[in-house]
From TrEMBL:
InterPro entries per UniProt: Gfo/Idh/MocA-like_OxRdtase_N (IPR000683), Gfo/Idh/MocA_oxidoreduct (IPR051317), GFO_IDH_MocA-like_dom (IPR055170), NAD(P)-bd_dom_sf (IPR036291)
Gene3D superfamilies (alphabetical): Dihydrodipicolinate Reductase, domain 2, NAD(P)-binding Rossmann-like Domain
Listed name of the protein: Gfo/Idh/MocA family protein
Pfam families in the cross-refs: GFO_IDH_MocA, GFO_IDH_MocA_C3
Keywords: Oxidoreductase
Domain GFO/IDH/MocA-like oxidoreductase: 136-234
Taxonomic lineage of the native organism: Bacteria, Bacillati, Bacillota, Bacilli, Bacillales
Membrane-spanning residues: none
Family note: Belongs to the Gfo/Idh/MocA family.
Domain of life assignment: Bacteria
Organism: Cohnella cellulosilytica
Domain Gfo/Idh/MocA-like oxidoreductase N-terminal: 11-126
Length: 337
């Protein structure tokens, strides 16, 4: 086993705390070099739980990056602060693993990709759904070819999410905070890029959200397979699983990520309507375990990680093109951005 890389985690809030506890702390690849958060109580609690000495608990990220001797940073602060913290980490020569959404604007994301190249450091985005066993099972099933040509796909996701204060205040709320997973899944599952979108996002009166919590969009892909997407974060009633409900329509049958009678999973239906549940791919590194392993391997092997910053520009562009399409009431091609 190689020596553990030293990781500093920035952000130990609602999500970051769970990531630290369940993924970073038990990771065979990383040891904590320190923790950063504006909240001193959260810092103290993390220090006590993970055995991090007091002089490695920071409220100021610049001091942390200069002092802690870390190889890499995991950025789990709220989304509006991703850019400034990633920029500083790269300037200090650290590799960067950054939560979705990469940044709030394409200009900021491009700036970080350029800076990482200049500094010869990696940026990886935590598009953790790509590493979920179910999503990997779906990808393998789609590639199997038994049902002929893939014609089109449908994806939907409804859930009531009580947004954090920063989520209530941000633009493009559902697109950047939630659809980022599903739109990235389209690119991953179909091994393709999105080339154009016609979409609409909207809000409810008095929702309490500045940015729209509902979205409907049709995506054109390089593979020639259109994908139709409908999603809401104010969907009271039955909640969908986080990965969403998907139907892939082939010439001779359909593939589903859904509950077709034997629990949420991947199902294949042939032209005679025989429905079979796919057995899951074997993975001992589900979700963020897989993300951390890939990030560490990319650093050790001096190569780009899967879901590099550069790759993720195309997911971010698809999301921001959806917002532009809604504003302008027309189809937006991604190369316009
Ligand atoms: N991949 C996933 O499935 C998933 C799930 C949930 C959240 N997230 C992402 O995780 C990120 C964090 O979400 P959350 O729910 O934990 O948010 P949160 O508001 O609960 O916590 C954010 C933390 O960041 C800290 N922070 C903010 N600015 C800072 C700064 N300048 N310096 C140091 N600390 C700072 C805050 O003090 C807070 O503790 C978001 O980007 C969110 O989109 C990803």
């Amino acid at each position: 086993m190689s020596v553990k890389l030293k990781l500093i985690q920035a952000g130990i809030g609602g999500h970051g705390q769970g990531v630290a506890r369940h993924f970073v702390y038990p990771s065979p690849d990383f040891a904590f070099a320190g923790v950063i958060d504006l909240n001193p109580d959260a810092l103290r609690a993390a220090g006590a739980e993970f055995g991090i000495p007091e002089n490695r608990l920071y409220t100021d990220y610049r001091t942390a990056f200069a002092e802690a001797g870390a190889d890499a940073v995991l950025i789990e602060v709220y989304s509006p602060a991703h850019y400034e913290i990633a920029k500083s980490a790269l300037e200090h020569g650290l590799h960067v693993l950054i939560e979705k959404p990469f940044t709030l604007t394409l200009a900021d994301a491009r700036d970080l990709v350029d800076l990482a190249k200049k500094q010869e450091r990696n940026i990886m985005i935590n598009q953790n759904y790509r590493f979920n066993t179910l999503v990997m099972t779906l990808k393998r099933t789609l590639a199997n070819g038994a049902l002929g040509k893939l014609l089109f796909a449908e994806s939907r996701f409804f859930r009531y999410h009580d947004g954090k204060p920063y989520q209530r205040a941000m633009d493009n709320y559902i697109l950047l905070e939630m659809s980022v997973h599903h739109i990235d899944m389209i690119r991953f599952l179909l091994d393709t890029d999105i080339v154009a979108v016609n979409g609409r996002t909207w809000n409810d009166p008095d929702s309490g959200y500045q940015g729209d919590p509902h979205v409907q969009a049709a995506y054109d892909t390089e593979a020639g397979v259109p994908v139709f997407y409908l999603s809401s974060l104010l969907g009271q009633g039955v909640p969908d699983p986080w990965e969403g409900i998907w139907r892939f329509q082939f010439e001779k049958g359909s593939v589903h990520l859904d509950d077709r009678g034997d629990g949420y999973g991947v199902y294949v239906a042939d032209a005679e309507q025989n429905i079979v549940k796919a057995s899951p791919v074997a993975s001992d590194k589900d979700g963020i375990h897989g993300v951390l392993a890939e990030f560490a391997a990319s650093i050790r092997e001096r190569r780009q990680p899967a879901v590099s910053g550069e790759d993720n520009l195309r997911t971010l562009a698809a999301l921001l093109a959806t917002a532009q399409s809604s504003r302008e009431g027309r189809t937006v091609r991604l190369d316009e951005l």
